[in-house]
Amino acid sequence: MERNPECIFCKIVAGEIPCLKIAETEKSIAILDAFPLAPAHSLVISKRHARDYFDMTQEEVDDAARLLKRVGEAAMKASGATAVNLISNIGRPAGQVVMHAHLHAIPRFENDRISITFDGSPQLSEAEKSSILESIKSFL
Question: What is the span of the domain harbouring residue 115?
Fold first, then answer.
């Protein structure tokens, strides 16, 4: 399995650094986040060193998604949360700190003071929306 000897998540996957393991599959491992934003904040980490979600193979993505669904539901129940964020930060501007593919399951509570907002979006004209739509489609 491809790994980066300097990567903290590769060291966790290899058992060189202890973790609080929740579950494991052939291609992924789920652990409690060492720096949680909420009780039961969990991570699903690719066992192979991939830079981020986009660097994962489709098989790895499928495996991680199945595990994230199970872990996210379990984390909500275990913490008594009423909601959950399932997130993959890709790149530093998006909040990625460890450059190894991983997904977050963050249980959420009313007034928990965690800020993940989608307000303040730019107002786009119909022409701008159409241009963006065509640009995205051209890259598919």
Answer: 8-138
